[in-house]
Task: structure prediction
Amino acid sequence: MRLSRYFLPTSKEIPSEATIPSHQLMLRAGMIAQAGSGIYTWLPLGLRVLKKIEEIVRQEQNRFGAQEVLMPTIQPMDLWKESGRYGCYGEELLAFTDRHNREMCYSPTNEEMITDVFRRYVKSYKDLPISLYQIQWKFRDEIRPRFGVMRGREFLMKDNYSFDLDKESAIRSYQNMYQCYLRTFNRMGLVAIPVKADPGAIGGNMSQEFNIIAETGENELYYHKDIETMRTQSLDSIDLEKLQGLYAASGEMHDPATCPIHEKNLVVKRGIEVGHIFYFGTKYTRSLNALVNGPDGSLVPAEMGSYGIGVSRLVAAAIEANFDDRGIIWPESIAPYKVGLILAKSKDGVAIKLANDIYAQLQENNIEVLYDDRNASTGYKFADMDLIGLPWQVIVGKNAASGYVELKNRKSGELYQIHSEELLGKL
Amino acid sequence: MRLSRYFLPTSKEIPSEATIPSHQLMLRAGMIAQAGSGIYTWLPLGLRVLKKIEEIVRQEQNRFGAQEVLMPTIQPMDLWKESGRYGCYGEELLAFTDRHNREMCYSPTNEEMITDVFRRYVKSYKDLPISLYQIQWKFRDEIRPRFGVMRGREFLMKDNYSFDLDKESAIRSYQNMYQCYLRTFNRMGLVAIPVKADPGAIGGNMSQEFNIIAETGENELYYHKDIETMRTQSLDSIDLEKLQGLYAASGEMHDPATCPIHEKNLVVKRGIEVGHIFYFGTKYTRSLNALVNGPDGSLVPAEMGSYGIGVSRLVAAAIEANFDDRGIIWPESIAPYKVGLILAKSKDGVAIKLANDIYAQLQENNIEVLYDDRNASTGYKFADMDLIGLPWQVIVGKNAASGYVELKNRKSGELYQIHSEELLGKL
Result:
């Protein structure tokens, strides 16, 4: 993409409404535009990141055997009355009546709705286990929306629901998603710490939250120091049983008086919740009468779990974990483009030709490149490119005549003089 | 995908609530499940088709220079007061107040919102033309939702908005989308007829609707008979000026008394509206004060057009144009899978091995295949496969020992005896 034609409204000014780095940087980098309190429009650069994160989530859900569906954002409240959760969400639930005076709501979560699909079509243990997920917008009418898309009102979420015949199998489904989540966040270049959590309005007594460590995180985390070491290892070599055996709790679940590990082994950090998994057994299948025939012919309520990932929040969380004073530093797998190509001498015919050639070559080789071909000062271009944080910068300027360019790694700041013919090999 | 593990709740029974073929077939083929009046959950098979259509729309939007953004589904009503459209949509607009008593609505269309983004960031004629689109869920609170996703309340739409400096350039943007739409529908294997239309609540005096011909269509179309011939030609050879010069009008725009062409040249058919393009000039940019600096330094309101495609409706429209008494007949580009592989003798070891081998081979070659490996009767499998309408069926049964299979074309019904080694070449 040529920047001269790209809708990328960057800004040097720190927006006064934004107090945390990710919110400031997403506004400054032209990734989002506020459309209302806690409601955002995703501009082209931001949407690219959102879609990359969404696609990694989707691929890993599929890899772990889940099937994608898509539920509507608006749902009738009848099911909530049936399940007994009517009223549980309080004012956070965006509820209203339609023109026929039917009570409706904007889905904040979909346990009822998916259980309704399940009970209509799945009748036998032979069709179990089954794991269905969607990636869909949700709405929670937060009393004080803040921190941009980190705690917005309308947000994109992956929600998965598993149905099993018995508890043993349901726990396997839960563990399957636990592994899937470790892998999902790893692929995004993020280290997520799983901690024991409060199930809240979803229910059940077994639940874990996945948190990205960041100073601006709203959660307090207490966990064994070995978890941090283990979470930086390659996934294949992790002893999952050991990882799950180590103490790890969110603030509301941690009690210093009963904490089983010694203080010297306890890490206390702040984290951003990006995933949450729940096992809640038959809470919804009993109330909604979602029964299946067991092998012995008896009718039993299916065992359920649900599993969320905050897809839009992950964009902000990834920034909180990866930025410096000049801007964002994207992990390569979720970067909007891999390479930022900068034409540093925009009036120089030789440099223009070389930059155009490199642009064409990168495109031919399917390397995602954003080409700053604008008629602007070099300093302005450098600042913009650092701000939007693409992993690699290719600068075409003073040595263009000899075919040399500069290759800069945004994260390390390392700068290489390199001949344009060697560029592809390096990238 | 193995059908034994796939969530595909097919049914022989014609649902009583469904009166048109696409609605009946989408329910029977396990593509959708009703979640409320005019509100549907997309099950795995249906979602695959929806995503294929969405992706073709996206690729063609990008090809024609549009940039993707994503606006929220919920928006504040303030902008509608500013534009003067507050109240225009009547009860079809799903409006409500949030917990702070602010008036909000579920977007039925986004002219105001995109103009707000535009006026905040685009200040100069140098940044024009610009074309922004999104693919997002909309809600229109229809008084009588009917025909399944054809006239549902929550529906997926592609909406594009163009901004230009002057009328001449705006007409070029309009024509650009006109071409883009012809190409988009062609790629889906559908013939869309563009007719002059009533701009309605969007406004302006230049608008065309794209219709798929179908007996169940809600629109009456009147057009010159040559249009039908031209629309079956390859796109590259079409004379666009000639096509646009031929008489074509929707029911509300057609008046027999003033119709300029002879009755013998007039075709009267029914159609399903799947796209609508509008040029409305400065209607929104004036009221919302979206001004840009012209080359002469003067401030002028940008010229606008908007362009919609009914993405979820297209799933149903494609079926209305392609079905028989046994089920759906998908055009290949939007089929959920290209091949349905049927193990016709599910107890025969040789047949099982051959079917498994073919399944592995098709997957390795990235041919999308749904493998009916279920332990069910052959008749049941044949009926299901005809119902879901994949373009090709590969039947592994009685001649498996000699390596022969049957290859069936769902549309033509032609059946070939073919050696399994020749299958890949044929597909």
